[in-house]
Structures are given as C-alpha cells and as structure tokens.
Amino acid sequence: MSQPLTDPEAHLQVQHLDGHLCVITLNRPDARNAYSQQMVDLLLDSLAKAEANDDVRCVIITGAGRAFSAGGDLKLMQQQAGMFAGHSVALAQNYRRTIQRIPKALEDFGKPLIAAVNGAAIGAGLDLACMCDIRVASSKARFGETFVKVGLVPGDGGAYILARVVGFAHAIELSLTGDVINAERAAQIGLVNHVTEPDMVLDKAIQIGRRIAANAPLAVQLTRRAIHLAHRQTLQQALETAAAFQGMVQKTQDHQEGVSAILEKRAPEFKNA
To answer: Is 37 left (phi over 0), alpha (psi -120 to 50) or beta?
Structure first.
C-alpha cells in the first residue's frame, strides 16, 4: 500500500493498493464526513487522476471514522455559510458549482466504483453511495434519504439516482418519509449488494475490486458503460451499443489472451491492450 497522496489533514485521502485498486477515503470524521468545499474539490480531482491512470482499474470510496458520510454539513446550513450562503439564485448556483459536479463526474467516470459503507450514509452521503456501482455495507450502517427532515429536497440529484438503484416505490417512500433504515433492510430492497461485519467492510470491497480488476480492463469499462447507457435506451439502441462495443473489444489483445487462457487452462494475464 502506498502512502496517502494528500495531506494527512486534508478532507480526503487517496491510497493505491496492489491489484490495480484506488481507495478514496472521505476524511472529516469529526463532522461525520459531511461535505466541505475542500472535500468536493479533492474528490473531483482524485477521480480525474484515477481516470487518467491506466494502472487503476477499480475505485473504492469509503469514510474515515464511524460514518460513511452525513451528506450536507448541518453547522454550515445553520450558519448559512459556505455552499449554503446567499439568496435563492446564489444558492442554486452554489449547488451547480459544488455538490452537483459530483454526480456528473461519477456518471462520466469510466471505471467501476465500489462504495464501502462503513457507517451512516445519510442524505447526500446516501446518494454518493448510490452513485457507485456496487455497495458493501457494515451490519451497523444506517441509510436515510433524510432531506425532508431538515426542510430540504435532494439537491445533489438524489431524486434521479435513488430510484435507479431501488426502484420508484422504495425511493419515493424513503424520500418522503425521511426514514432511516438498517443494513438488513437496505439489502432487502437492493440498496446494498453485501452486508458484512463492521471491521470487514473495506476488506470485502477490496476483494470484490480485485476480482473486477483481474478481468480485461477495456471489456470491464465498456460493459459498465453499456449497463449505464441501457437505463435510458430502447432495446434497439442498447443492441447497437453492444454491437459497437463488442466490435471494439473483439480486436484487442486481451480478448485473444482470455480465449487462449481458457483453452490452455491457465490464468489470463491481461495487459489493457
């Protein structure tokens, strides 16, 4: 494991692990990893660097301390400071310039994303977890789309994102009640893929990440893209996308390596080529 790539006091930490993995840790434990402007900027910068780094094949997002993320910073809301400062028009612009950049960046991100939900994922913290492809949760984690509890709407895109993970019926109930659910219930409604002991959350996410990263990188990235695109495509459009992507990967060295490895009964050595 490398040393953190950012200042130890920074609101976000980045580490690279063996097996082509990058771990991004939200690092405001005293604020339950609520967003700050610094955290938003560092998250976007870290994602851009991971995207550009061919050695990174999968990214894991987790939180420092006892929470994954509490979402918006309630103290800043109370003070009407930072991203919560200004009149109505300015506030709307603040959202566009800060927190709404995150779903756009993750939507465009080309590599698999795993959320290692080590604790509470509340409000925009829940939405961040939902922006990832796979969610691994601590058995003690709690999940809530709680904006209405503080007189707000999901300003970070949660109204769009949550329903695409759990379906309309569950999403609207969670959003209108603001109820906080436990990990067991989250697994029942498809909000999380795996529930594990609290001290095994990151290990489980790393295990999954390494299984993903062991596959042909371009095929993984295009498969992920095809699934995301299919959410808003017709069947014909999805088939056209699949044909185009298949035409691309079928001419790669990694495709030939994968076929040869199976026929020769050995492990493949994919080189992202």
So the answer is: alpha
